[in-house]
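tokens incoming
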């Protein structure tokens, strides 16, 4: 079974991995969150209403977490061609409890690879600052995810339909939606828009400000690995950060994981060993020799996901987890110098923290790692076309088995699955790579615990392209709702982000006043 380059959780946040192998997820990348049921309530919300309106309907909003759910009927399937007028229903959410027509603002979440309700529920920062910024909150769903399917149930059945699944088309959707909001909501026409997103959504927020600066006065791009392309950063930086998280969370923790791969190889070399592994790891299905690479990829993905959601409080973003989950995991991985069987029993205890912290799971399924709210099919296609992120491991600087970046291998697998081949240089051609100093008003935030920070902007580029570093932050911790256990570093980061947003809003109204 081939090993596909690490690419799945973004994001948000984003988020998990490809079905075939070692691909860290831009999938959840986040971006970002709650249990597998996208309609689940955030912990802070006691009242939650989902309403359906035609695009010009008005709504009353009850309590803090009530939003209206509209179907926007004008996005073109292809914004850049002129021989088709086909449209589709794009879903978006609007919350206006604290919005003020005089001096207000619009915070626009650039939806990533999943159900927009899930991202809405898990981007508590926007809800927390809405009153202070007098803001209307808008959460726009990304085409081909959630309910925003340009070709309905046939969206993924024909590769010709998938030709319109690109970041450029998604950004154009957002631009058209903003125009629609300003045209149809009284008081919104002359208000500043700020793009906000995490993980892949953070990349989209930054790119939206770059490509549509006349439509967004600024952008907050949280945990946005806009430089995880081509050779802009070393291909091994992602897994090196994962390893550092585990090394710092417990004595000999990363070394135990490093030694587990050979232990698995040895134990799986016989039929009795495969049977023993199945039982020791409490797997739902018996292992065969053909499953071993997939097993190791599944375990690797688990360590990656833990690094992304190593939050200072209990959370259920990808799975229900305790506070500082890597520290809890590492309690079982203190001694690498034990027998293969004991080491793998310890590995099971560590895996069980991620997959069965609630104690409700009877067996572990190596085909499942994260929430179903993320769009696996869509992200797999994007990773095979323009979102081509090189990843590699060497087993020395990291705790994983060595694996080099192999573009040809990826290309062949993409062609087999989708009938397309990746364009690894297109994102840097389209969005500039590291040559972005001509742009302005973007805050790039990154947590030092987050492996995606290796591909993010972590130093100021100009006075208005600003990097915010969160020393105790995992994947877009700053976009999550405020919590009593938040470390000081994220409190300071959020305060700085709000200060920049207030400056952008003030400058917008200052310019508007001078024009009148």
């Amino acid at each position: 079974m081939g090993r596909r380059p690490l690419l799945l959780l973004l994001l948000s946040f984003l988020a998990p991995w490809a079905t075939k192998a070692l691909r860290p997820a831009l999938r959840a990348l986040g971006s970002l969150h709650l249990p597998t049921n996208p309609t689940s309530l955030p912990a802070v919300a006691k009242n939650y209403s989902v309403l359906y309106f035609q695009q010009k309907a008005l709504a009353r909003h009850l309590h803090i977490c009530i939003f209206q759910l509209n179907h926007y009927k004008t996005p073109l399937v292809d914004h850049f061609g002129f021989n088709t007028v086909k449209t589709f229903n794009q879903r978006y959410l609007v919350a206006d409890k604290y919005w003020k027509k005089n001096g207000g603002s619009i915070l626009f979440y650039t939806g990533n690879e999943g159900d927009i309700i899930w991202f809405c529920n898990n981007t508590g920062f926007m809800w927390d600052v809405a009153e202070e910024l007098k803001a209307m909150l808008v959460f726009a769903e990304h085409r081909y995810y959630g309910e925003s399917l340009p070709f309905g149930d046939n969206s993924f059945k024909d590769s010709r339909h998938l030709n319109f699944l690109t970041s450029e088309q998604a950004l154009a959707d957002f631009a058209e939606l903003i125009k629609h909001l300003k045209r149809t909501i009284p008081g919104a026409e002359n208000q500043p828009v700020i793009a906000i997103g995490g993980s892949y959504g953070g990349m989209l927020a930054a790119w939206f400000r770059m490509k549509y600066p006349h439509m967004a006065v600024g952008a907050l791009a949280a945990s946005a690995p806009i430089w995880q392309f081509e050779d802009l950063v070393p291909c091994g930086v992602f897994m090196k950060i994962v390893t550092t998280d585990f090394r710092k969370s417990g004595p000999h923790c990363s070394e135990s994981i490093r030694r587990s791969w050979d232990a698995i190889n040895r134990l799986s070399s016989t039929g009795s060993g495969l049977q023993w592994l199945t039982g020791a790891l409490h797997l739902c299905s018996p292992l065969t020799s053909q499953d071993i690479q997939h097993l190791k990829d599944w375990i690797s993905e688990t360590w990656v996901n833990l690094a992304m959601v190593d939050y200072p409080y209990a959370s259920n973003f990808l799975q229900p987890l305790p506070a500082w989950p890597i520290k809890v995991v590492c309690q079982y991985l203190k001694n690498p110098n034990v027998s293969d069987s004991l080491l793998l029993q310890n590995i099971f205890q560590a895996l069980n923290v991620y997959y069965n912290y609630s104690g409700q799971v009877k067996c572990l399924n190596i085909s499942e790692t994260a929430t179903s709210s993320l769009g696996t099919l869509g992200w797999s296609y994007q990773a095979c076309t323009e979102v081509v992120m090189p990843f590699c491991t060497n087993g020395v600087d990291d705790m994983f088995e060595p694996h080099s970046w192999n573009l040809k291998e990826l290309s062949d697998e993409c062609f087999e699955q989708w009938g397309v081949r990746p364009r690894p240089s297109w994102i840097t051609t389209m969005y500039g790579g590291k040559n972005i100093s001509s742009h302005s008003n973007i805050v790039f935030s990154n947590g030092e615990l987050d492996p995606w920070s290796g591909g993010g902007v972590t130093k100021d580029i100009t006075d208005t392209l600003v990097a915010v570093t969160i020393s105790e932050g995992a994947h877009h911790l700053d976009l999550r709702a405020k919590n009593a256990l938040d470390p000081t570093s994220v409190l300071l980061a959020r305060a700085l982000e709000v200060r920049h947003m207030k400056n952008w809003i003030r400058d917008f109204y200052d310019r508007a006043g001078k024009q009148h």
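note: The radius of gyration is 22 Å.
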